[in-house]
Amino acid sequence: MFDTFPVLRRVGLAAATIGVAGLLFAGCTTTSPKSTATATDKRESMNSAANATLSKLYEASPQSKELVARAKGVLVFPDVLSGSFIVGAEHGNGVLRVGGSNAGYYSTTAGSIGFQAGAQSKAMVLLFMTDDSLNKFRNSSGWTVGADATVAVVNIGANGRIDTNTAQQPVVGFVMNNGGLMAGVSLAGTKISKLNW
């Protein structure tokens, strides 16, 4: 009798791999004359989403507002989608703000290997606290956390305060999901590239 289980398992694995590849390459498109007409819409949508993300951050950690105000540059990724089935992938788009004005649009990607299955969404906010860290980021052709700079992910203490040692680092990061700020998250290996929007 023909055993269908190995075949079904291979089909499921292939479908999951295609889904992950789709996540990875969703942002890799070429610009045609038709798509340039929607660039303004993309920017407006991204700006609204970034504002909403910052509002959620301020609610989750009121002290973060002061840190954002002191930052030389603020990079907001409102919606980073991740999916994994043995091989994981993340992708999202964001906006860099310098002096309160939009200074460019960026994409982020990351990969991982693990035995988790599922998908989730998170938001990331990176704060460039020094002119030097911001300039290195803006002048790079591709920027990777861990290789080009270390990002100190903020820890919130039991008293709701931001760890002062973390807040003094050149690049500070916040990661949030629907449940609020995420603790113990590493952004190492996250790649950020400029978008031509």
UniProtKB/TrEMBL annotation:
CDD domains: SYLF (cd11524). It holds the Pfam family Ysc84. Residues 1-26 form the signal peptide. It comes from the Bacteria. Residues 110-193 form the Ysc84 actin-binding domain. Keywords: Signal. This is Ysc84 actin-binding domain-containing protein. It comes from Achromobacter kerstersii.
